[in-house]
Specification:
With 498 residues, this protein is an alpha+beta fold. 41% of the residues lie in helices and 19% in strands. The chain folds into three domains: 5-297, no CATH class; 307-429, no CATH class; 437-497, Arc Repressor Mutant, subunit A. It contains 16 helices and 15 strands. The protein starts with a helix and ends with a helix.
């Protein structure tokens, strides 16, 4: 029997995540940082184009956002940090260096708790969160004669970029995906970034190595690039586990290198060797002062942090009696969690039993029909026409017996399409639930007269006949009859006929 890679070798993964921050301006100049839809080379100035004689100025908001993220990741915030020049020649760096941070970053020594389904939660380390500037964007093309050439767009150059360096604490592609999902959720909660991999404002490089189980020394590190989705990260790392396992089993050495993920092939390909460490010749940026952050400043930022996803998840379970699965779905985004609590606001004055009942009802609709309609329309919950108060109002109408659960589904679809309140839709469409005993009794009499065979089947002991007759009565009322009242009256009439 062949042993699986997981039992022969231990996988060691560390992630480096680059996050574009949602500031209005670039990191060291006053140019608009929102470049996504702009024509090439239109959001530029002498500073971000690296013209001679210009001086950078630190974006205070970028520093604030990085400190926010660092606090959310349980990092230490030193009182003193500085910017450095990272020197390397590449066409997307017109200066010939990148302003970054090296030995004295804005934060360090943090952690993040992750959980893979079926496993216990565990902490993974965050080495540091530091600030730097993004590079220009290169587009590689080929002319009619087959000659390759490249175009450069400086709009992205200088956009504030936060780098989150993780410790090599991840032990599987599943854990790497869980780490990225959790990190993305936190960054979006605190509002510092869109954190969208497909748009390029949340970029991940993965370092992966294998070592024999029980060994303490790390194996040769391979860096994997060109991954633009959580799925791509997972698949690329899984492919590397398989590749490196085969190499080690064959007695071959794993070279330290950078490899690119090829989505179409489902494999990685060697890009360049990293056998020798690149000499970036870091030195302190002479044109920028050190960054000093006193405790008062840091505490003020800490006080402004919103409730984070894990805390909100735990509170939803505790306060609203939700199962872990539903609590997780409802806290996926800050907008969804806030919508849920806004929908429940009218129930706060109710007794605990009623409040918990409404809490479950709202949750059921949000993870059920509401989620289905949002997915089908491609809308985010913040874009939905259904107001939180109207979702509560519809559920309240169900509780009062004004409409049935079945009718509510049709009402909600109309609410989703039009934004109308439920009471108006019910009135316009004549969907009020029939609860009066006299009216239902008359309907039941008609159903019994029209279905003598079903009545005879009931008398013969066939209980299935009751379900049939209830269905016929509900059809006659277009689903508007109160099911409990109707069933009770129908059974009473059947028994009296017996």
């Amino acid at each position: 029997m062949t042993t699986t890679p997981a039992t022969r070798y231990e996988t060691v993964i560390g992630l480096e995540v680059h996050v574009q921050l949602l500031t209005e301006r670039k990191m060291f100049c006053g140019c608009n940082a929102a470049y996504a839809d702009a024509a090439p080379n239109t959001h530029v100035c002498p500073v971000c184009m690296a013209l001679p004689g210009v001086l950078p100025v630190i974006n205070r908001k970028a520093v604030e956002y990085t400190v926010m993220a660092a606090l959310a990741l349980n990092c230490e915030i030193p009182a003193f940090s500085k910017f450095d020049r990272k020197n390397y020649p590449y066409p997307d760096l017109l200066k010939g260096y990148q302003i970054s941070q090296f030995d004295l970053p804005l934060s360090q020594n943090g952690w993040l708790e992750i959980q893979v389904e079926g496993e216990e939660p565990r902490r993974v380390g965050v080495t540091r969160c530091h600030l730097e500037e993004d590079t220009a964007r290169l587009t590689h093309k080929t002319d009619g004669a087959g000659q390759a050439y490249s175009l450069i767009d400086m709009n992205r150059s200088g956009v504030p970029l936060m780098e989150i360096v993780g410790e090599p604490d991840l032990r599987s592609p599943e854990e790497a995906r869980a780490y990225l999902v959790k990190l993305q959720r936190i960054l979006r909660y605190i509002g510092v970034s869109k954190a969208n991999m497909e748009e390029g404002n949340f970029r991940c490089d993965a370092n992966i190595s294998l070592r024999p189980v029980g060994a303490s020394e790390l194996g040769s590190k391979v860096e994997v690039k060109n991954m633009n989705s959580f799925r791509a990260v997972y698949n690329a790392l899984h492919a590397e586990v398989v590749r490196q396992t085969a190499e080690l089993d064959a007695g071959r050495r794993i070279p330290q290198e950078t490899r690119g993920w090829i989505e179409a092939d489902g494999s990685t390909v060697s890009q360049r060797s990293k056998e020798q460490a690149h000499d970036y010749r870091y030195f302190p940026e002479p044109d920028l002062p050190p960054v000093t952050l006193d405790a008062t400043y840091v505490d003020a930022i800490r006080a402004r942090l919103p409730e984070l996803p894990d805390a909100k998840h735990a509170r939803f379970e505790r306060e609203y009696g939700l199962p872990a699965y539903e609590a997780n779905l409802l806290t996926e985004t800050r907008a969804k969690a806030e919508y849920y609590e806004q929908s429940l606001a009218p129930a706060r004055e109710r007794d605990e039993a009623s409040r918990l009942r409404y809490a479950r009802q709202v949750a059921n609709w949000m993870v059920g029909d509401f989620a289905r309609l949002l997915n089908a329309s491609g809308l985010d919950i913040a874009e939905a026409r259904v107001r939180p108060a109207d979702l509560y109002g519809m559920i309240d109408l169900i509780e009062q017996g004004t409409i049935s659960g079945k009718i509510a589904k049709a009402v909600f679809e109309e609410m989703f399409a039009t934004g109308k309140p439920p009471a108006a839709i019910i009135k316009d469409l004549g969907l009020e639930q029939i609860s009066g005993s006299d009216e239902i009794s008359g309907i039941v009499d008609g159903v019994l007269d029209a279905n003598p065979k079903a009545v005879e089947d009931f008398r013969a002991g066939k209980q299935e006949a009751v379900k049939f007759l209830v269905g016929q009565a509900m059809r006659a009322t277009r689903g508007r009859a109160n099911p409990e009242t109707l069933t009770g009256i129908l059974k009473a009439k059947l028994e009296s006929k017996g």
